[in-house]
Amino acid sequence: YAPWCPACQQIELTWESFAKESEHLAITVGKVDVTQEPGLSGRFFVTTLPTIYHANDGVFRRYRGSRTLEDLQGYVLERKWEAVEPVAGWKSPSSIMMHGMAGLFYLSGWIRQIHSYLTGTLGIHVWISYAIFILATLLIGLFLGL
C-alpha cells in the first residue's frame, strides 16, 4: 500500500479487521508501505496498489479476489488459494531476478536522494544535477567497458 493511494485508504479498515482475525485463521497478516520499502515493491513486482499476496511455504500467489472481509477470510478458510496458480518462478519474490529488481528500486531511491541533496542542500540548479548524472553514467559505462 501507499499512504496517498485512495484504493489503499478504502480497504484499510477491512485489512485491519482481517489482521485482527488472523490469529483465528492461523495466519500472519502484514502491511508494507511501498514508499518506505521500495526494494520490496520491486521484489514483488508491485504495479498496482493495493497488491495482496498469499505466501505459504515459500510459494507466492497474488490475490485478485474481492476485497471484502468475508472474501479475504474465505480465501484462507476455504483454501481457495490452492486453486490460484503460484507466481511464475522467475517472477517469484525469492528469485534472483526479483532480487536484482529490488536492487534497482533501491538504486533509484538512492539517486533521488543524491539529486535532492545536490539541488536542495547545495543549491545546485536542477539541470546541472542532471548533467552530473549524465556524466557519471557515461564514465561508469566507459569504466565498465574497459
Describe the structure.
The chain has 146 residues and is mostly helical. It has a domain at 6-91: 3-Layer(aba) Sandwich (Glutaredoxin). 55% of the residues lie in helices and 7% in strands. It is built from six helices and two strands; from the N terminus they run H-H-H-E-E-H-H-H. Strands 1-2 form a two-stranded antiparallel ribbon. A hairpin with a 2-residue loop joins strand 1 (52-56) and strand 2. The longest helix is centred in the C-terminal third of the chain and has 26 residues, at 96-121. The N and C termini lie far apart (42 Å). The mean pLDDT is 88.
The total beta strand count reads 2
Mean pLDDT: 88
What's the CATH C level of the domain at 6-91?
A: Alpha Beta
Span between termini:
42 Å
* Residue windows where pLDDT falls under 50 for at least 5 positions: none
Q: Output the strand order for the largest sheet.
A: 1-2
Give the CATH H-level superfamily of the domain at 6-91. Glutaredoxin
Helical residue percent? Answer: 40-55%
Order of helices and strands: HHHEEHHH
Overall form: elongated
